[in-house]
Amino acid sequence: MRLPRTLIPYRYKLALVSSVHRLFQASKQFLSFPKARIPAGRFPQSKIQYQNRLFHATRYKMAATEPLTTYQSSFSLPSLLKVPETDPSACVLDSFRIAIAQLLSDALGLDLEKAYNGVDYGKKGEDFTVALPRFRLPGKVNEVAQKVIDKFSPNEYIESVVADKAFLHFRLNTPNMIRAVLTQVHELTHVVPAQQAASSSSSAEPEGIYGTNKLGAGKKVIVEYSSPNIAKSFHVGHLRSTIIGAFLANLYKASGWEVISMNYLGDWGTQFGLIASGYEKYGNQEKLEADAIKHLFEIYVQVNKDAETDPTVKETAAAWFKRMEDGDEAALANWRVWRDLSIKKYVQEYERLNVQFDVYTGESEVSKSSMDDALERLEKIDLVEESNGAKLLNLEQWKLGKAVVRKKDGTSIYLTRDIGGAVERYEKYKFDKMIYVVASQQDLHLAQFFKVLELMGYEWAQPKNASLVHVNYGLVQGMSTRKGTVVFLNQIIEEAANVMHEQMKTNEEKYNAVENPVETAREIGITGVKIQDMAAKRINNYTFNWDRMLSFEGDTGPYLQYAHVRLASLDRKNPHLLPLPAPSALALDLLAAPHTSQQARDIAFLLGTYPDVVKTALKTHEPSGVVTFAFRLAHAISSAWDAVVVKSLGEDEREKAQARLFLYGCARDVLGSALRLLTIRPLERM
């Protein structure tokens, strides 16, 4: 399709030209940006995606393959000593924390890095807090605190220090914090990507990189997730793995890793013997061509029903699968067609969810030789024992029970295929980490699987390397239609879209302004599904709740979309303030007291924390932290809406109005980035 000419909002077009030129000329000695690349096949297919690319960049993709090498902000503060694992060029609040650490180091004789690690984000309105007892210093804690206060004098980083029992609370220099944060958000979202694009021969559009980091630069990770069974519609049971896995893929890309998103299909096993034998009896070519997934599922249900009264059905199915494992071409021909049709259907489902895979593989692609080699290796280390003709692994000394690795008829089982597949993947990709996104119900299987690879002696599988990771999650309870019937995912999405569409129609003026209301309603519904899933810790079970999921009130997906749309509307409502000057020419001091209420400062500080939110999520593999950040930002915006107004300011307060519009624009950029990290497409109208 034809791509939009620009991703930069009109509000920044003229300012951006001068900003890019000035930043490039002033920073040649500091800047070393690699060329931008976007993976093929990732361009938008809908009007909503088109609009989103017109106004915003997807913040994480480019950073995954082309991490930021060096960046020098156009707003500079006094230089500071460097602290390991900090990067003020990606998170400007790091520099403020270093300034606090330097004060602690000077006043208390602490090592700078140790002091830095003691500086935490504050609570209840405090910027940063230090718990003094953690340093285990001699003397009374109030005397230690007084040493810091005596050493302190206000500077360009720190405005005040307050002792509170065993704690010290630090408030940052408000004007400098606001300008430093907003400048960095703007430049890493718009200026630097545009500069990269200008020096690149690529036709790909520039993409914002605020919130990204380089922690995984030079490393490769495989994220295996979703993994539905072919010849079946996408069931809601696969939804959590898909949502969490896609988030992790985005998260690792945002952290500089080379990411391979892998869908390991359930495309092998006795169940396909059932379908194959059932197809001979119930198959219909016309129905297959009309809707292959639906027809094959109908066959699967019918043949299982037959098996309840006829024991020979499963025997026939097992014999059929044995023929497939032996490579009988007649037995494999239909299976190949069903597999291809299933993948095509899944690609459509994933596109609606804004999920893409780099590799579609499956149990069928694990070679027999790999499985045989694995079994032979296990027998050599005396882990295999026989039971009624089947072969089992005895892992009881590690409190992992016993596990079948080969059935009595000689066919493979999924543990054997997992082992062979892992070995083949390492040989092919030489990954640094491989993540399996699988429900907590499979905790024992994954523990057995990882232990077996460890015992087989593979260096990459040793626990010390932490290269094999199981990201587990709890169950979705009560996920059904509003009428109570258990359904497939497409039914959930369509029902959510219909409810949202009806709600949108209640405001005729806004409804008429939306270019594609049906598609917009679907995006809101999908957002509701995803946010409800990711809002709590992933290990927790949760009950699917239609009313909560689709509400515009409270912490819901529609509420986040509404917050983003609200921010996007400000440019449309204030064309007289556009285009905005470059950040250096904006009167951002007017965002601080007494010119503007505290809410503006709260928003700016919150925006500055976003890079750390991403880093924390990388450590925990929890999407809930990013969801919580998005809600906090949306709440801060809502709180500021009436106190930090833009439109009602007169021409004599134009500078203040432009500064506020810039603040809200940066908030829109960061909220959009957080939503994209969560695989959600931010909307411009709804």
TrEMBL record:
Q: Which residues form a coiled coil?
A: none
Segment forming the signal sequence: none
> Known PROSITE patterns for this protein?
AA_TRNA_LIGASE_I
Q: Which residues form the DALR anticodon binding domain?
A: 560-686
- Cite the GO molecular-function annotations of the record: arginine-tRNA ligase activity; ATP binding
Q: Name one GO cellular component term.
A: mitochondrion
Q: What InterPro entries does UniProt report for this protein, alphabetically?
A: aa-tRNA-synth_I_CS, Arg-tRNA-ligase, Arg-tRNA-synth_N_sf, ArgRS_core, DALR_anticod-bd, Rossmann-like_a/b/a_fold, tRNAsynth_Ia_anticodon-bd
The entry's keywords: Aminoacyl-tRNA synthetase, ATP-binding, Ligase, Nucleotide-binding, Protein biosynthesis
Report the catalytic activity.
tRNA(Arg) + L-arginine + ATP = L-arginyl-tRNA(Arg) + AMP + diphosphate
| Similarity comment | Belongs to the class-I aminoacyl-tRNA synthetase family.
Q: Name one GO biological process term.
A: mitochondrial translation
Do you know which Pfam families this protein is assigned to?
A: DALR_1 (PF05746), tRNA-synt_1d (PF00750)
Protein name in UniProt = arginine--tRNA ligase
Q: Which domain of life is it from?
A: Eukaryota
EC code: 6.1.1.19
